[in-house]
């Protein structure tokens, strides 16, 4: 699991250099993420986080500019009818099937 996390740029290597599709995972993480199309298996990055907090994690993961993150994250639940779930520790009301 550790190697997969490194290859997806979620965990830095302890030593050495790792390249994915020619991109260095430390210095070109955004390029790696775009090239591999990383999508986590679980919708919630961490069950201890609220919906808003999970959206911030994913906004960072997909390189949403810092100045736009909060605005986009705060607008998302309203646009998608998820306002009641946004502050809860859940995956926005989506259940595993």
Instruction: Please provide the ordered H/E string of secondary-structure elements.
Output: HEEHHH
Q: What fraction of the residues are assigned to beta strands by DSSP? A: under 5%
Biggest sheet details: 2 strands, antiparallel
Instruction: Give the integer mean of the pLDDT values.
Output: 77
Strand order of the largest sheet: 1-2
Structural class: mainly alpha
Helical residues, percent: 40-55%
Number of strands: 2
Radius of gyration: 15 Å
Termini distance?
24 Å
Poorly predicted regions are 91-97
What is the total number of structural domains?
Answer: 2
Broad shape: elongated
Number of helices: 4
Characteristics:
single chain, 97 residues, 40% helix, mainly alpha, 2 strands, two-stranded antiparallel sheet, disordered C terminus
Structural features, described:
The structure is a single chain. The protein is mainly alpha-helical. It folds into 2 domains: 2-36, no CATH class; 42-92, no CATH class. 40% of the residues lie in helices and 4% in strands. It is built from 4 helices and 2 strands, in the order αββααα. The protein has helices spanning 2-7, 29-36, 51-61, 66-79, and strands at residues 19-20, 23-24. A two-stranded antiparallel sheet has the order 1-2. Helix 3 (51-61) packs across helix 4 (66-79). The longest helix has 14 residues, at 66-79. The radius of gyration is 15 Å and the shape is elongated. It starts with a helix and ends in an 18-residue tail after the last helix. The model is unreliable at 91-97 (pLDDT under 50).
